[in-house]
Amino acid sequence: MKRLLLSTVAFAALGAGTAMACEPDYTGVTLNVSTQNGPAIASALAAAAVGWEERTCGTVNVIEFPFGELYPKFLTAMSQQTGDFDVIGFVPAWLPDFSTFLSSMPAELQEGSNWDDIHPVYRERLMTWNGEVKSATMDGDMHMLNLRADLLDDADEQAAFDAAYGYPLAAPVTWAQYYDQAEFFHRPDDGLFGTAEAYRRGGQQFWYFFSHAASYTNNPSNPGSMFFDPETMDAQINNPGWLRALEEYKRGLDFNPPGALNNGSGDVRPLYAGGTVAMNIDWADSGVLGSTEGSIEGHVRTAMLPGSTEIWNHVSGEWDTFDEVVHSPFLAFGGWQLAVPADSENPEAAWDFVAEVISPEVSGQAIVTANSGVNPYRFSHYDNLENWSSVFSEEEAASYLGAQRASLDAPNVALDLRLPGFFSYTEILEIELSKALAGQVTPQEALDAIAEGWDALTDEFGRDTQLAAYRASVGLPPM
Amino acid sequence: MENRSLRTIGLVGCLVWLFFSFFPLYWVFVTAFKPPLAVSQGATYIPFVDFQPTLQAFRDAFSGIRGDFFGPIVASISISVVATALSVFLGAMAAYSLVRFEFRIRLASGLTFGVISIGGFVLLNGAFDIDVPYALLIVLVLALVVSIWMNKYRLPGPVLGNNDVTFWFVSQRMFPPIVSAFALFLLYAEVGRAGFPLLDSFLGMVLAYTAFGLPFAVWLMRDFFSTVPVEVEEAAQVDNIGRMRIFIQIVLPMSLPGLLATSMIVLAFIWNEFLFALLLTSGDWQTLPILLAGQQSSRGDEWWAISVAALIAIIPMVVIAAILGRMMRSGLLSGSIK
């Protein structure tokens, strides 16, 4: 009888036509969803829009802008309350500037298994500003070390490396080992170069520098002190930890292919995938490119960024030494996030769309879709190895996902700079960094100039305001 | 012998110049057919020899995964053609009047315009809380009427002539575009709140680009009109033909090469304009320069995609320039100035 009743209800529901199919019913609602030009991120939003439109009968209009213009475009539109956008896709560094113009995530989205499935680093830190969840991570990003199994597992290479450096050839655990391997595999006459990193101004250069610096400056004894002193807001970028990082980052030029000063992350990627370099540092894209379009298919291996046994302590003014290597993997960029501007005319539908995009099912498909630009950020993303069979071999997938999960789980994981006026700070940084890399000034001179510029900016923005924002960004309570 | 040597040197010089001119175009063209690895692993020049060409970048572009190309192409063509036509037509009228009529604008009446418009706006918007668009409309009309009325009287101070007016037109293009672009964005946003949406609209873009192109048109057309013999117009006036008819039926046809040359220059400026398009559009009327810039993403420079977008962006301009160039060379035009 019950089955008959259910069948009748189901039949009636089908007969009622499309009206019954809309859940919730957003017929007539058009969401303007904006982010950078595709395919990365925009294509993932467009793909999610198809399912959302079928489910809710609403319409999604994906609007794309150049990445370099996204920040001013969103900020001007939201500050003038033009209502142009219902959902914006942006990067966590901009959240401090955007937060006052964003609505908070509805409470019902902040509970249940889908919510708990998001890794706490994103859920509790990057999606939150001043205690409120203002955004939803739709892409997990971090710098990782990409290696090649065809070199690491080669018996002759292993023997030669052991003989030369006195320890076995394996994924580098410290930066010293990283440079040993870069030097060992640097064979320009054979068309093989030690490593590849981005050094070009405007080519994601400073994130690479930060990845080195995190290992020497993100002191676990002084949380949140990597970029600024969280008590005074004095810039820390010219301390000995940063100096060591810059000297090492610059040293890497010796093991990069010629013309590395002009390489951005877009150049670093195919250098690895094409087998020109023995390893590189990059976001998750290199691994996927290497396994799908490159000449190292089947040999992609990924590791957490190297760490250090020494970290600068800005309070004591000395190097703290550790018995074990402390890994401080750097969440460069921090991935893409979605948020709903407060001036949206359709906030409920907008948040419903956000929930669709970040749902385990939709995001689980996005992370294995070519060129979606979406990288794992949910526990379920890391657990489901089979999902990756179209991209990686089993060993590659285990290594790729394992490195990402280990990076997020690392107790001393380092978050990217998030501060009002982010672009002003990074502009000063890039100018001086480029001078140091080109040899126009010494690393210490460059860092001193950056620190001076950062302190001036902090005073300009208001030291107390910036201090409060910085402490919020690193998860410290207000002073 | 000496002549032959000079010709040879000249020819070589031309060939070198040709190479420098065409190589960037060739480079963009071949890069559009390169796979990513062929772009980043050192320079490659010749398809099928240095690298295996692929149409993947074109497929990506036309499949829509790199943004909607069709919409911006339509938007760019329609906005730039209409705005160019308006700019050149209005600019030609202004330029003609500057060539044929003597203007005497008293500085005091101009200053009166500024004082009434700025002071009136502050008063209406600040004290009486009248919305920005309405306050602007009221004070601008009032300031214009009062300043024209005052200009009839012998006010103290200097008197501005035609050259000063021309310079004022050109001076609109002297300050950085962001100064006017952001102000225009704020104005459009306010007008939108009053119920007349101009942001991301065809009308808003055409208005902005007409104002953008007008100084070029006035400046260029003024020189062209000054070469038109005034005797022709005087003969028409003897026949009791009105000024507007003289302008449209006699002066404009005689200045057609100038109109076409001006149109090409104004069109090129509007076609490639980025800042206004970025601030004033979002989804519906986004133009090609925005799409082109968007090919450089947070993932780095994807030169193959940028090259495809660049090729797509220049093709309509090449076609329009070819048509206008052909018209300029045609006997139809040469006949009008014989």
Unreliable parts of chain A: 1-19
How much helix is in the residues of chain A? 40-55%
Q: Tell me the major beta sheet of chain B.
A: 2 strands, antiparallel
Rg over CA atoms of chain A: 24 Å
Question: How does this structure look, described?
Answer:
- The complex is a heterodimer of chains A (479) and B (338).
- Chain A has a 5-stranded mixed β-sheet, sandwiched between helices. In chain A, strands 8-7-9 form a 3-stranded antiparallel β-sheet. Chain A has a two-stranded antiparallel ribbon with strand order 4-5.
- In chain A, β10 and β11 form a beta hairpin.
- The N terminus of chain A is likely disordered.
- Chain A has 21 helices and 14 strands.
- Chain A is α/β, with parallel strands linked by helices and 479 residues long.
- In chain A, α13 runs parallel beside α14 and α19 packs antiparallel against α20.
- Chain A starts with a helix and ends in a 6-residue tail after the last helix.
- Chain B is mostly helical.
- Chain B contains 16 helices and 4 strands.
- The longest helix of chain B has 31 residues.
- The interface between A and B is large, with 48 and 36 residues.
Short description:
The complex is a heterodimer of chains A (479) and B (338). By secondary structure, chain A is α/β, with parallel strands linked by helices.
What layout of secondary structure does this protein have?
The complex is a heterodimer of chains A (479) and B (338).
Chain A: H1 2-15, H2 18-21, E1 30-36, H3 42-56, E2 59-65, H4 67-79, E3 87-90, H5 95-98, H6 113-116, H7 120-126, E4 128-129, E5 132-133, E6 136-137, E7 144-148, H8 149-152, H9 155-165, H10 175-185, H11 205-217, H12 240-251, H13 265-273, E8 280-282, H14 285-292, E9 300-303, E10 308-313, E11 318-326, E12 330-331, E13 337-339, H15 347-358, H16 360-366, H17 379-383, H18 394-409, E14 414-415, H19 422-437, H20 443-461, H21 463-473
Helix pairs in contact in A: 11-12, 13-14, 19-20
Chain B: H1 2-31, H2 36-40, H3 56-63, H4 70-100, E1 105-106, H5 107-127, H6 132-151, E2 159-160, H7 162-171, H8 177-193, H9 202-226, H10 230-238, H11 243-254, H12 256-272, H13 275-280, H14 288-293, E3 296-297, E4 300-301, H15 303-329, H16 331-336
